[in-house]
# Entry
Amino acid sequence: MTEMLMVFTTFANEDDAARAARTLVEERLIACANLMPGARSLYRWEGEVKDEREVVVLMKTRKQDWTAFVSRLHELHPYDTPECVAVRIATGSPRYLQWLDDSLQPEQP
# Structure
């Protein structure tokens, strides 16, 4: 089975998050994305502590597509330095993992 990753990122608003996620799904760089609005993020940025509302996005992709995925996410993301961290999916429902893999395969003519 292909090694899968769960990727975490955040966006300032749901429209930007949905636009980027849709593009990544259409381009088969992610199988799916879960948008979770209403997150409150506290972080240091440019010498100040920020307290902002954000949309957390969970995306599922293949490890082999990581470089292309990260490059494209940075093109689509409005932040200068978007959060983009991934953890390996150690195990999961075999049917779901197969669906992820199938969703990321190139479209057959």
In short: Strands lie at 4-11, 32-45, 48-62, 85-88. The chain has one domain: 4-103. The domain at 4-103 is CATH 3.30.70.120 (Alpha-Beta Plaits).
